[in-house]
Amino acid sequence: MNRNIFIFAISLFATANTVHANSFNETQKKEIESIIQEYLIKNPEILAQAIQALQVKKNQEWMAQIKKTIVTRIDELFKSKSPTLTVENPKLSIIEFFDYNCPHCKKFSKIIDTTVSQNKDIQVIYKELPVLSETSLFAAKAALAAKEQNKYQEFHQKLMSLEGGLSEEAVAKAAKELGLDINKLSNDMNSPKVMEELRNNQKLAVELGIRGTPTVIIGRYPATQDMPIEVISGDVPQEAFNQNIESVRNPPSP
């Protein structure tokens, strides 16, 4: 069977499902279904291509929607009190939603660090989003509590450098190695400020339709509603991330 016949069969089948129910009798419908089934069995790559095309389409739709929502959440995203790696004269902001137990987050964290070291005008805003386990929540609370001792950045980097899944013991050990006051850290972990930050991040993630970690948003500084925006879901290679940075810094002409 050639491709044209298959396309014709698909068209007939689609028509059969959109026009009056009696347009085709049961025998005709079964014949059309048989043609489609036979073609897919002989050419399974067609189905794979269709699934891939659907995934691309869904991702494009999600990307368009999340960018629209970001514009309505500028303050919560770019002007919040979340932990921030600040620079003297920022031109761009990277917002990172992450989980300390996420291996992709740890991989992408290194790429972000490299990018920041090579671009002195980029600030990073950290959005703790513990979604994988109870120890993810424990680590996020500990990191936010470390902010009260002015050691969030050090503690964040320490946790991101630990291989494999984290345990509460590993988090506590990392805190001790950095010289944190463990009693204060323990008390601050359940403070209203820490819990509010986590609730706000969770709410934002739901409103944005974030599908997993890491999710990274790149925008201008100061943030405006008409600025170019790039969104990355999952880790990407350094070169691809550099291209995302450049498209925000110097967006292509319309």
What does this structure look like?
Helix 5 links the parallel strand 2 and strand 3. This protein is 59% helix and 10% strand. The chain is globular, with a radius of gyration of 24 Å. The chain folds into two domains: 48 residues; 183 residues, Glutaredoxin. The protein has eleven helices and five strands. By secondary structure, the protein is an alpha+beta fold.
Q: Could you give a quick summary of the protein structure above?
A:
This protein is 59% helix and 10% strand. It is an alpha+beta fold and 254 residues long.
Cα end-to-end separation: 44 Å
Q: Uncertain regions: pLDDT < 50 for 5+ in a row?
A: 1-13
The CATH class label of the largest domain is: Alpha Beta
If classified by CATH, what would the architecture of the largest domain be?
3-Layer(aba) Sandwich
Q: What spatial order of strands do you see in the largest sheet?
A: 1-3-2-4-5
Q: Name the CATH superfamily assignment of the largest domain.
A: Glutaredoxin
Percent of residues in beta strands: 5-15%
What is the chain-wise order of helices and strands? Answer: HHHHEEHEHHHHHEEH
Number of domains: 2
Largest sheet: 5 strands, mixed
**What average pLDDT do the residues reach?**
88
Cα gyration radius (Å): 24 Å
The number of helices is 11
Instruction: Give the number of DSSP strands.
Output: 5
Question: What fold name stands as the CATH topology of the largest domain?
Answer: Glutaredoxin
What is the overall silhouette?
globular
Helix content: 55-70%
Assembly classification: single chain
Structural class call reads alpha+beta
